[in-house]
Design a protein that fits this description.
2 domains; globular; GMP Synthetase, Chain A, domain 3; 8 strands; alpha+beta
Length: 156
């Protein structure tokens, strides 16, 4: 999704989500074999239920039908970001310092390593630093395709 469309969607969706007492975690427009999917991820301190997703989906769907910012057909899906959530903003990265992440880089040269898993140790506006097996590795945001939280299954 280009930056202009992302901004339009943020400007439309954030006020709706916030007014209903939730936080917008992220938005993705993904092509699939069955068509495009607009995924809207919401979060709340108390968690997100299926009913919450349904109510927000209803509100967003009506708004998108009126404003029509997306020039391709799509299906709207609203959900929580999940345990293995994708990180979308610098603030999200900063909130998760000390957690394990999976960083996937944009493809460059054939045979070059693209996937890294380690502890997120530092974040600036331009890059992140991940401790991968004891070695600190820096990644600039423009080289990152996707970063996901790696859930830890703590024993009680």
């Amino acid at each position: 999704m280009n930056k202009e469309l992302r901004k339009k969607l943020d400007d439309l969706i954030i006020p709706v989500v916030n007014a209903m007492g939730y936080e917008l975690w992220g938005i993705e427009l993904k092509p699939t074999s069955a068509g495009n999917i607009l995924s809207v991820y919401i979060e709340a301190e108390a968690g997100v239920t299926l009913d919450d997703c349904g109510r927000i989906s209803h509100q967003i769907s009506g708004l998108l039908d009126v404003e029509d910012p997306i020039n391709v057909k799509y299906n709207l899906e609203v959900s929580s970001p999940g345990l293995d959530r994708t990180l979308f903003t610098v603030d999200q990265y900063k909130r998760l310092i000390g957690k394990n992440v999976h960083v996937r880089l944009i493809a460059s040269a054939p045979g070059e390593r693209r996937n890294y898993v380690g502890k997120l140790v530092a974040v600036t506006d331009g890059e992140i630093c991940v401790d991968v097996d004891g070695e600190k590795v820096d990644f600039t945001f423009d080289k990152i395709e996707r970063t996901n939280l790696v859930p830890s299954l703590a024993k009680k």
